[in-house]
From TrEMBL:
Protein name: Uncharacterized protein
Origin superkingdom: Bacteria
Amino acid sequence: MLHRLLRENIEISIMNVIILDNISMSLVREKFKSFLKLKQ
């Protein structure tokens, strides 16, 4: 029982990390795009 709970928690946290990583990467990309526009 406990083992299953732990495994589900690990899967959920991995999903959260992946989602957060995607969000932060897209934010960084947007900032970089606007930065490039400013430089031109």
